[in-house]
Automatic annotation (TrEMBL):
Species assigned in the record: Dactylosporangium cerinum
Superkingdom of the source species: Bacteria
Signal peptide location: 1-27
Record keywords, A-Z: Signal
Name of the protein: WxL domain-containing protein
Signal in keyword set: yes
Keyword Signal found: yes
């Protein structure tokens, strides 16, 4: 072996080697050992004395039990790594190459690499640090196989350092098997989904569906367990399926998708207690739709898309009125869409019915019916008369008109200055006599715009004389009149009151009417005061009050 003083600049001087002991059935290590091989320095290296790289080595692969044709990732690790020689190194000066031999049911070589080594600059004689080198191979036919480390190369550009078999003077020709060996099996078993209840495909299922599966290549006469796991075949198991195999390792089983199962890309995982086989499946969630636009007027074409529908199923799309789901449908004709292999739908639906509150999609019948809606906002401000190049069609915009009618008053009035009524005078002659006069017209106007009636009622006081005497109010009578006021438009006919005593009697009234009341009316009366034969002479006055209500 070359002495350190003769190493080329940047060459690696290793003070450790490789020779490992027994391995597990699945993977080697990590285990403290040495790699029994010679370490030669530079391409012209000589010498017969082996050096020993003492370290803790590991060799693993993922998956640990591959299937035929599956790509396998292999990882070699050394916890400490070798020490540097007398020349300082920069980071990445000596990339690591690990060679492995495939054995058993496999043949060939596998190359692992660690592109950047050491990961940081190292002084002369300093530890170079841990090694992790990875590579891949493709698993072959089913059977027992092995991976064996045969050579380690520290690939310094100036002077490579090889760790290989004793007496290998060119450091390349005869890499020797070490005791770092991973024994494994290429497993040829598999599973497939034969049918899914409630589905027309075998690639998807939803809660409550039963997945029927078949297996091959598993242990003979075994009891199978099945569950749903994540897309990589790991994670928390969901569901509890079962099945059995026959004497050849083939069998069948079922799994009911549990309520609340994780949706999306999943795997069906089936185990015989020793081996596990998986196959992908999609677990569907609650169906849903979305619409564009979310509202519009009559004739609007709406793009409808949806997810999580049963693949291959026919989905009906139509409009729905407001109400509890499923609400009543509108008059617009439904359209159909076929769900894709992933459960997606797309279609176009035209809204014409102004009562549309939702656009919905439905599929299936009975308890297995799937239903989803999206809110639609109807607009009265737009519509589509003709679509594209259509030559027929029409649409309407309607307007809501409003008018406020404010109620007027129920009122009465009289001619200015007509509030004093002078009855005709009499001269006493020993007989009953009458003073007469007239009540000036009172105009009643009813502008309330109602269905109510009204009335004019009189009230009078006793006549009081000066210097003395009185005449009873009962002696005053009237003969009412009531007619339509000139130029008025009346909804009803007002009626004059009965002739007789004034006090407490009606002068004029208009009836209530369900069709409406109102108008203008003139009311008046002829007055007559009966004066007793022996009435005290004097001047008499009284107050007549007319009340409108």
């Amino acid at each position: 072996m070359k002495t350190p003083s003769r190493l080329a600049a940047g060459a690696l001087g290793l003070t450790a080697a490789i020779a490992l002991g027994s391995t597990s059935a699945e993977a080697y290590g990590p285990a403290a050992n040495s790699l029994g091989c010679r370490l030669y320095f530079s391409d012209a290296g000589t010498g017969t004395s082996p050096t020993t790289w003492n370290d803790t080595f590991g060799l693993t692969q993922t998956p640990a039990t591959p299937s035929p044709g599956q790509t396998v990732t292999v990882t070699f690790t050394a916890v400490a790594g070798p020490n540097n020689g007398p020349v300082p190194l920069n980071a990445g000066d000596v990339p690591v190459i690990i060679k492995l031999a495939l054995g058993g049911s496999q043949s060939g070589t596998v190359t692992l690499n660690m592109a950047t080594y050491p990961t940081a600059a190292a002084a002369a004689g300093a530890p170079l640090g841990s090694i992790t080198a990875t590579g891949t191979y493709v698993a072959g036919t089913a059977g027992a196989a092995s991976l064996t480390v045969t050579q380690a190369v520290f690939n310094n550009a100036t002077a490579k350092t090889y760790c290989s078999g004793p007496g290998d003077r060119d450091h390349k020709a005869a890499p020797a098997a070490s005791t770092i060996v991973e024994n494994y099996s290429v497993f040829g078993g598999g599973t497939s989904i034969t049918s899914v209840t409630g589905q027309t495909v075998t690639s998807a299922a939803r809660a409550g569906n039963t997945i029927n599966f078949a297996v091959t290549g598993l242990n003979a006469s075994a009891t199978l367990s099945a569950s749903l796991k994540n897309a990589g075949g790991g994670g928390t198991a969901e569901g509890s399926g079962a099945g059995t195999t026959d004497a050849t390792g083939a069998g069948t089983g079922t799994l009911v998708v549990p309520a609340g199962a994780t949706t999306g890309a999943r795997t069906l995982s089936v185990s015989d207690g020793t081996n596990t086989v998986t196959t992908p499946i999609t677990i569907l969630g609650a169906p849903a739709i979305s619409i564009t636009p979310g509202g519009g007027g009559a004739g609007t074409a709406v793009a409808v898309s949806g997810t999580n529908w049963n693949p291959g199923s026919t989905v009906s799309i139509r409009g729905y009125k407001a109400g509890a789901p499923p609400p009543p449908p509108t008059a617009d004709a439904a359209v159909t869409a076929t769900a894709s292999a992933t459960g997606a739908i797309s279609g176009s639906f035209t809204v014409n019915d102004p009562t549309t509150a939702y656009i919905g999609a439905t599929s299936g019948a009975g308890p297995s019916t799937l239903f989803a809606v999206a809110t639609w906002t109807a607009s009265a401000d737009s519509c589509v008369a003709k679509t594209g190049l259509a030559t027929t069609g029409s649409c309407n915009l309607s307007y809501n008109l409003s008018q406020t009618v404010t109620a007027g008053n129920l009122a009465m009035s009289r001619t200015t200055g007509s509030g004093n009524v002078t009855l005709s005078g009499v001269t006493l002659n020993g007989t009953v006599q009458h003073g007469t006069g007239a009540l000036a017209p009172i105009t009643v106007t009813d502008y309330r715009g109602s269905t109510f009636g009204w009335s004019l009622v009189g009230a009078v006081t006793d006549f009081t004389g000066t210097p003395g005497g009185s005449i009873a109010k009962a002696n005053l009578t009237w003969t009412p009149t009531c007619v339509a006021a000139a130029g008025s438009t009346n909804a009803v006919t007002a009626t004059a009151g009965s002739a007789g005593a004034v006090d407490g009697s009606t002068l004029c009234s208009a009836p209530a009417n369900a069709a409406g009341t109102g108008g203008g009316f003139d009311a008046g009366a002829a007055l007559d005061l009966q004066i007793p034969a022996n009435q005290l002479a004097g001047s008499y006055t009284a107050t007549l009050t007319i009340t409108l209500s």
